[in-house]
Design goal:
Layout (H helix, E strand, L loop, with lengths): L1 H7 L12 E9 L2 E9 L12 H6 L2 E7 L3 H22 L6 E7 L11 H10 L3 E4 L6 H40 L8
Parallel strand pairs: 3-4, 4-5
Antiparallel strand pairs: 1-2
EC number: 3.6.5.2
Keywords: GTP-binding, Hydrolase, Nucleotide-binding
InterPro entries: P-loop_NTPase, Ras-related_GTPase, Small_GTPase
Length: 187
């Protein structure tokens, strides 16, 4: 429901997907054109299925959403956060800093709250990710602000990676020059 709200500005009250979807959107963020692909897995956990292996490797960022009025969804979100971190450690042998956001949704249902704000905040700190609570039903602008923050975080990670490339090419040039006997002073 959060992705649909962001993409269409509409809120679907009884959103319960039993199928995976990939949404695409082109947008301009800080003067830069972005082609966005959002993978929205089946919102109904299928017997605790946490495979998502392929998606964990191609994604540049993750938004893990739980319902503040449903303790089971919080437990599932916790398992997903663990799975994301585990998959990145296993692939890279070190922690990859991907953008991960934990979002407590349905803030408009505070009277039915089963998961406290402090619990969500603690899980986010323990998982080394960012955290917010919002209401997709009532506040479209909060949803846009959260997605914008995620996208800025992801694009800033790309800028850091781009800045590292030239130093790697200089090192490669030095290595090639050393192999072929051309010595020159380091710059």
């Amino acid at each position: 429901a959060l992705a649909v709200r962001f993409l269409t500005r509409r809120f679907i009250g009884e959103y319960a997907s039993n199928a995976e979807c990939i949404y695409t959107k082109h947008l301009c963020l800080d003067g830069r054109q972005i082609h966005l692909e959002i993978y929205d897995p089946c919102s109904q956990p299928q017997r605790g299925k946490l495979s998502l292996t392929d998606e964990l490797h191609w994604a540049d960022g993750f938004i893990i959403v739980y319902d503040i009025s449903d303790r089971a969804s919080f437990a599932f979100a916790k398992a997903l956060l663990y799975r994301i971190r585990e998959s990145h450690i296993g692939v890279c042998k070190k922690m990859v800093e991907s953008s991960v956001f934990l979002v407590g949704n349905k803030q408009d249902l505070c009277h039915m709250r089963e998961v406290g704000w402090d619990e969500g905040q603690k899980l986010a700190i323990d998982s080394k990710c960012q955290f917010c609570e919002l209401s997709a039903a009532e506040h479209y602008q909060e949803v846009v602000a959260m997605f914008t923050k995620v996208l800025r975080n992801i694009t800033s990670n790309f800028k850091v990676k781009e800045k590292r490339r030239p130093s790697g090419s200089k090192s490669m040039a030095k290595l090639i020059n050393n192999v072929f006997g051309k010595r020159r002073k380091s710059v």
